[in-house]
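User: Show me a protein chain along with its predicted structure.
Assistant: Here is one chain, sequence first, then structure tokens.
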Amino acid sequence: MRDLRHDNLNSFIGACTDPPNICIVTEYCTRGSLKDILENEDVKLDNMFIASLVGDIIRGMIYLHESPVRVHGNLKMSNCLVDSRWVVKVADFGLQEFKREDFHTMSRCVGLLYCAPELLRISQLDSTVMVKGTQKADIYSFGIILYELHARHGPFGEPELSASEILHHVINTQPGQPPFRPQLELLENSFNFVRDCAVECWAEIPEERPDFKTVRTKLRPLRKGMKPNIFDNMMAMMEKYANNLEALVDERTDQLVEEKKKTEALLYEMLPRSVAEQLKRGNKVEAESYDCVTIYFSDIVGFTTMSAESTPLQVVDFLNDLYTCFDSIIENYDVYKVETIGDAYMVVSGLPIRNGEQHAAEIATMSLHLLEAVKRFRIRHRPTDNLMLRIGIHSGPVCAGVVGLKMPRYCLFGDTVNTASRMESTGSPLRVHCSLECKMLLERLGGYTFAERGLVCMKGKGEQLTYWLLGEDLIHRARRSEERDIRRHKPRLNGYPGRSSLKTKPPQRCSSLESPKRLRFAVQRNPLLEAIADASPCRKPSHPLLLEASSSSCPCIEQCPVLHQGITVDERSQPRKQTT
């Protein structure tokens, strides 16, 4: 064994005979076996590659059959090793006494698929007899290897049978029936001489099988175009492999870039873009105070009752449909969705990027937009129900920052958040409940219509004068939309800010019945926000311009001089008309 030296044989170095660590030491091949290479889909095997691999196996087996060892006895893909230069070295030959137990037990049926049928029948008749290989059996094994290299679908292709069932059919050949062999249909793209050689190698009668020298002659056309110099062939193979690696690296790089974009998109959904960029750079995001922002809160009136009468899956589908519709609308505005908890929806404008006093207009127009969308929304499992959205908006100072490490959240803190929540909870269905501070900002911006609601008792705040936001003037809305489009470089769509994905699409109803997975909202040709009549009992109107600003008012509200003229409650009771 130690005297056997050939470029295509895996050299035997020595053996350890001390039980229980009985082992054989051979030369190490860095690229593993042919089985490993075939299972790696990234390795492309062209005709030159296959011809070189097949030629190495044939040369190694010719030398082995002419040596004192005479036979291999266990030739299969896993015993054909490949070194760093892509040279195949036949391994696991000789020393049958060391392998008697492993060979005799034959525990792995897959490895036996390369074994000749005559050897399988002997082992089946008497399991105590040690089956020795033959040169003709090695030819049969080589035929299976040749088939697998070209078909690349396992030793017997892709049959619907298990390995043990295949062995049963190979051993028990029915009289008058052809022997069970691999599927030749998978070799339809191979050369005819390759298919003919494989069929001759796995012939049922051993004497009809050729020897390896004859096989080499039959497969010589496979090496057409290859250089006669072995080193040149090896360099050509290495060059092709390097090119394949370059293409593979480019493909993996593109996949990495695409996955990075998906990760960044998910991060931008969780956090504002400016905050996400700081976290990506590894910077610590400090909490920041904002002098004035506008906060939007909304919930669904009767959501608890509807949830009790619906299945959990129906509730999830409903909320997904609704919030997908909302998300498609608010992305047209300079706002940031803070969070959704159950049926509660929270949006803010004016942070983390300040936008002057435009935050009030962004939230107000967005609220009216959402209100119109809700009127067209249909619940999938309750199509006859009308969705009752209750909205509250308020302006004031807040503090914002990132909370948490494992799942960071961008949170808002301050009395403004509580007041905005109270505005929503004390509102009415299909109404936009607006605070005095927010109303004053909107009046300075112009174009909005209000109706005084009167004094409303709020938890922790006492009586507060509030208003209903009824609508927006079309001229002001169009002007604001154009200004917003200029800032965002996006086209305008009928007064509301346009989305690029909706430019060429016809108007659609915002209905969970029509689009259960992804809802889109398209503005009608001439959307008019009709004034919402106040159906509540008449209240004594008051004079909001002469009320004192609350201690939590934002600086932009406190700049209004008329707010500092305090009057008594009796003076507030003077009636006034709707303001525009």
